[in-house]
Prior knowledge:
4-stranded antiparallel beta sheet
Amino acid sequence: MSADNQQERPCGIPSYYVTGFVDGEGCFSITIQKSRNVRLGIQIIPEFHVSQHQSRVEVLEAIKEKFGCGYIKPNDSNNPRDLTSVYVVRDLDNLHNKIVPFFKKYPLISSKRKDFDKFVEIVNRMKNREHLKKNELIAILKIAFSMNASGKYRKQKIEDVISVLESSETVRQTLRKE
């Protein structure tokens, strides 16, 4: 290699910079919500996001360009005091095909790595459509509730979510008998 070639760098933000930035400002999380639009009544939404003060949104734009997916939005548009923006990826295919492989190749080094590993397991299970079966969904819920400080900031308890599954199953069985 010539000296000129050694000085050349690939375009865009360096991969290890992205990993370090995500280690500090990113999160791999699973949103759980009731929904009448899904068969079991519980919707699971895996999400990767990175936040930053809106005055430095160019970092989020560079990360979005690096991954080629997702969107940037105000973190909390209802709170005028929240001056952060957030880069978000929720699409299961993009999570599975872009986000997960990237962080496997350029791994996190903080304790956030454990949450990433659980996130990967959930994304893989969802790609295999396991979340559509009650027992598998319960297993996924248990993994999700063990993430991010064991879900201590969640507004609901796992028992309450599982009870929704039980009650919606009872309703379906009753409807079948009629």
